[in-house]
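Q: Please design a sequence for this.
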């Protein structure tokens, strides 16, 4: 009996010791990063469903960036934000109220201390712009189309406040974005569609910030009006990826809160895709449009809408439509897996390489843009 009592006591002491080594990290943590100028950084950590973290650089953008990974080993906190190439590693103080460590972006390590904030001391997180109403008319009140700077590199589609912007984009780029197509699904048209580059700035009729679905609808109306675009659709057999459920089943969180609402699939960097209220067709569409080198056909059979965050390390075959140079793969131990592994491990889905009947958009008529 004494031996048993002594064993229980030792076990309790070990449990208390382990708890002491891994403090409760849930809460708001904030600190100043001295990166040429002072930047206020806030990291919000939750522990409801495993440790999760979101970082805000509140002097730069209202958008939060979800952590790719967050780990606690004893009193060492490690955070990784793969999409923007940021890592933070620090030691938690004995009282659990500060973390002293290093903030690293690329090859530039900087010291930073995060302090636990309370209701009175927490910096106010910036409020993002109010969203455009789901039933608002998705057309531009005014739009300008100008030739791009010939020296410009890359290309960009973005939403800034209420404005929709494209920079250094060809008409082919705009059509594939507007209609949710892969470049291989666009057939015909004059050669200038793929050579002449334009900057487009559009202000919606409706108030608030449009989402990607509304942006596409406005771009469709624009190209049909200003470029006199007319098309028809056909089905052709093309190399494609078939999105299917992997062995073991899907690992997705169902979203039943807003079945008629618009989805959100906006990249937070190359290889970081938060998805909210989206169907599998929505997900297949954004992967073929922005990431992969061929069309994607949804064959999952999954109905309804889902929330998830997909994080991966991209390679040189991906994001061609963004016109960006993919950085060399990271050798960091916490670097996310490659795309095909990430989709299977994180979502319970996979991409199969196939030839499949795919709908294509055939250009019947198009003209160079009308005057602003």
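A: Design:
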């Amino acid at each position: 009996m004494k031996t048993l009592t002594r064993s229980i006591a030792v076990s309790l002491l070990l449990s208390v010791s382990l708890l002491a080594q891994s403090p409760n990290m849930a809460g708001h943590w904030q600190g100043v990063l001295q990166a040429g100028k002072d930047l206020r950084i806030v990291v919000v950590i939750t522990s409801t469903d495993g440790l999760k973290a979101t970082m805000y650089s509140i002097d730069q953008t209202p958008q939060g960036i979800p952590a790719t990974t967050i780990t606690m080993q004893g009193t060492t906190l490690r955070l990784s934000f793969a999409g923007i190439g940021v890592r933070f590693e620090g030691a938690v103080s004995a009282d659990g109220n500060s973390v002293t460590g290093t903030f690293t972006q690329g090859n530039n390590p900087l010291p930073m201390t995060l302090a636990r904030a309370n209701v009175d001391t927490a910096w106010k997180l910036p409020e993002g712009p109010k969203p455009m109403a789901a039933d608002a008319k998705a057309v531009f009140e005014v739009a300008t189309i100008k030739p791009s700077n010939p020296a410009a590199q890359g290309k960009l589609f973005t939403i800034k406040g209420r404005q929709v912007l494209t920079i250094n984009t060809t008409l082919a780029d705009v059509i594939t974005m507007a209609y949710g197509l892969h470049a291989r699904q666009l057939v015909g048209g004059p050669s200038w569609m793929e050579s002449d580059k334009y900057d487009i700035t559009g202000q919606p009729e409706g108030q608030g910030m449009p989402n990607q679905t509304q942006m596409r609808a406005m771009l469709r109306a624009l190209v049909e009006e200003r470029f006199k675009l007319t098309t028809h659709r056909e089905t052709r057999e093309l190399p494609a990826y078939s999105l299917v459920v992997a062995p073991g089943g899907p690992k997705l969180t169902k979203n039943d809160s807003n079945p008629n609402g618009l989805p959100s699939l906006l990249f937070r960097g190359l290889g970081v895709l938060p998805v909210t209220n989206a169907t599998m067709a929505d997900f297949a569409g954004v992967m073929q449009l922005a990431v992969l080198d061929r069309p994607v056909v949804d064959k999952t059979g999954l109905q309804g809408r889902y929330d998830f965050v997909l994080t991966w390390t991209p390679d040189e075959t991906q994001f061609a439509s963004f016109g960006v140079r993919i950085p060399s793969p990271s050798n960091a131990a916490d670097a996310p897996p490659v795309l095909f592994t990430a989709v299977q491990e994180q979502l319970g889905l996979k991409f199969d390489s196939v030839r499949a009947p795919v709908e294509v958009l055939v250009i019947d008529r198009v003209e160079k843009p009308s005057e602003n």
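Q: Thanks. Anything notable?
A: Residues 213 and 262 are 7 Å apart (CA to CA). The longest strand covers residues 349-365.
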